[in-house]
Design a protein that fits this description.
The complex is a heterodimer of chains A (530) and B (100). Chain A is an alpha/beta fold. Chain A has 15 helices and 19 strands. Chain B is built from four helices and two strands; from the N terminus they run αααββα. Classes of the chains: A alpha/beta (530), B mainly alpha (100).
Chain lengths: 530, 100
């Protein structure tokens, strides 16, 4: 059932067994997994079913550290959350990501990969992914002969890409018809109110843009609003605990992590085509896999570096490939392509490569490639793991949003280990490419000897993590291994804000797996009490 | 040792990477940069000069190529002005820079 706060009586009190704040991939996955149980679930969503400027503006904030996207650009605030604009590039964390690494301060999860594996199995179809595959399986199916890397130095790791799953669209009907799930729209959570001893959350306060207020009382509360908003809401909940709920150790908001993305360098080679062909995303049945290069766990240990991935991309002035893609999308959508004459001229000029790409698709099921003589440069882009850093953090501004909540301030910081990792990995890559006779690699200026700053074009991956990190020790984590906030009996956090370390892979699949695991924990807890 | 021989040896077995008119000057520049960044490599570069000379003009090419291949097999690479190179090639460039 869906209801709208704006239509409820003012100061309504809603009750549920579990209140989930946030209807993004984590919140929706949890609610779905509770359908059919005897647990009453209330999902609180700030937005409506579609995008709205005023609601989206509630995501605004300040950024005072490493330049970052506008905070209201990086996420979406309506039913389905940021899955409404994701590309669905996914992957599982690797075993090294869970380990405590002596050379990575604050690293280590409270459990290993085996704990998450069954939850990944359940999360994969939710994210529209197929079964787990081996690299050999994928290469074979992609019909590509990979270069033979020295696997003591570098290895391949694949992104898995599915048709973007818009959680708010795909799972809407299921939630609408679920007898034990209610979704409350246009309800902005402004505070978690605890009891006087600050050991238990009593209620969550809500407000709508029309001024209507409500309060939710539940046996268990789950914050699933994203890494910035989870921390923001906890810090703003300072009625009983002056520094924010669950923040006795001053950890809430700290350890903000992203996946820094930027060019690290380019390759001078006489045969760019082979590499471009090999590194293009390719089809495996309905799914797409894109190769990238990472460093084996043992080597990260000997080199004392993070776990980072590199992707090969290229610069071309040839446009027929983009035109073909544009035409295909228009035709599939039942439209006559825009700029038809211009597009046709592009295709005529590139008749040879157009024909070749059609042949590749029809006969070999291979992705399109650019015309070799149109390629100006082959380069590598990193998607880096960021070392956990307590000074990289979310705090609250004195400025307030339209509903009176204090705005978040992001101070994103990167450190020496983050940069050294890219220098070491680039060197390993350059050495391997030269060994294989594929060309010579040159770092971009910001990573060369003596380069002291970060690249001005460095961005994140829209992957916000770490601000309510998980640890069994309350001195180093906000939540425990079950995602329960230390010191509070009934407050939990779902989403990538609980990641102690962020790996190098897009975070959604893992956060869905963790959300399902948390649902199961809450189910057991509520059942035991009953 | 002739500069031309060193030049030939340096490029042996490796792709052409430095898009300048005068490869020899590019190599010298690379060698100078390497020694500026790694002055501790100066004795090795001097020793390298000797080994190149011992290999003789006809053997230099093979000498550098062989050692570069060995470096790459062992992951013995260095960074010079952003280029990731086998250490032997950096030493040959350095030897050339010292001659100049």
């Amino acid at each position: 059932m869906f209801i709208d706060l704006r239509t409820l009586d003012d100061n309504s009190v809603l009750e549920a067994d579990i209140c989930i704040v946030g209807a993004g991939p984590a919140g929706i996955s949890m609610a779905r997994s509770l359908i059919g149980t005897n647990i009453d679930v209330l999902v609180i969503e700030s937005g409506d079913m579609d995008y709205d400027d005023d609601t989206q503006a509630l995501y605004q904030g300040e950024s005072v550290g490493v330049p970052y996207f506008g905070l209201d650009e990086a996420r979406l605030r309506f039913f389905g959350g940021s899955s409404n604009h994701w590309d669905n590039w996914c992957g599982e964390f690797q075993p090294i990501d869970f380990q405590q690494r002596s050379w990575v301060p604050y690293s280590g999860w409270p459990f290993g990969p085996e704990e998450l594996e069954p939850w990944y199995d359940l999360a994969r179809p939710i994210c529209s992914l197929g079964p787990r595959r081996t690299n050999a399986d994928i290469w074979d199916k992609l019909n590509v002969e990979p270069i033979v890397l020295d696997e003591s130095r570098l290895k391949f790791h694949f992104w898995e890409i599915a048709t973007p799953t818009r959680f708010g669209e795909v799972y809407r009907e299921e939630l609408r018809t679920a007898p034990n799930v209610c979704v409350l729209l246009n309800a902005n959570a402004t505070e978690c109110v605890s009891n006087a001893a600050a050991h238990k959350v009593d209620s969550v306060e809500l407000v709508a843009f029309n001024g209507r207020r409500a309060r939710v009382k539940a046996r268990q509360f789950v914050l699933a609003c994203g890494a910035i908003e989870n921390a923001r809401l906890m810090l703003a909940s300072d009625r009983i605990e002056p520094h924010g709920i669950g923040n006795r150790r001053d950890l809430v908001g700290r350890f903000f992590m992203e996946h820094p993305r930027d060019r690290i360098g380019s390759l001078t080679t006489s045969d760019p085509f082979h590499l471009i062909d090999m590194f293009r995303p390719g089809w495996f049945g309905e799914h797409v896999f894109c190769p990238s290069i990472t460093v084996p766990a043992e080597k990260t240990k000997t080199e004392q570096i993070l776990n980072t991935r590199l992707q090969l991309l290229y610069v071309t002035d040839e446009t027929s490939m983009a035109t073909m893609r544009r035409f295909a999308q228009s035709i599939a959508a039942g439209h006559v392509p825009d700029r038809l004459a211009e597009g046709l001229w592009d295709l005529i000029q590139g008749t040879d490569i157009t024909a070749y790409n059609l042949y590749r698709r029809a006969i070999h099921n291979r992705p399109m490639v650019p015309k070799p003589d149109g390629v100006h440069q082959v380069y590598f882009l990193c998607q880096a793991e960021q070392a956990p850093n307590p000074d990289s953090r979310i705090t609250l501004s004195d400025r307030r949003d339209a509903l009176g909540s204090r705005l978040p301030v992001l101070d994103w910081r990167l450190g020496e280990l983050d940069k050294r990792t890219l220098q070491v990995q680039g060197k390993l890559l350059g050495g391997e490419l030269a060994r294989l006779g594929l060309g010579l690699f040159q770092f971009d200026p910001w990573l060369r000897e003596g380069g002291t700053s970060w690249s001005p074009s460095m961005v994140g991956g829209y992957h916000q993590m770490g601000t309510t990190r998980m640890s069994d020790d309350e001195r180093t984590g906000v939540v425990d291994a079950n995602c329960r906030v230390h010191g509070l009996d009934n407050l939990y956090v779902a989403g990538s804000s609980v990641y102690p370390t962020g790996s190098n892979i897009n975070p959604t699949l893992t956060l869905v797996a963790l959300a399902l695991r948390l649902s199961d924990h809450l189910k057991q807890r509520l059942t035991e009490r009953a | 040792m002739s500069l031309a021989a060193v030049s030939a040896a340096a490029t042996a077995g490796l792709p052409a990477v430095i898009p300048v008119r005068d490869p020899l000057e590019a190599m010298r520049a690379l060698g100078r940069t390497y020694l500026e960044l790694h002055p501790e490599e100066t004795p090795a570069a001097r020793a390298w000069q000797v080994s190149l000379a011992e290999a003789g003009e006809t053997g230099m090419r093979g000498h550098t190529a062989r050692n570069a291949r060995l470096d790459l097999e062992e992951g013995e690479v260095v960074t010079v002005d952003g280029w990731v190179l086998p250490r032997s090639l950096a030493l040959t460039c350095s030897a050339l820079a010292l001659v100049a």
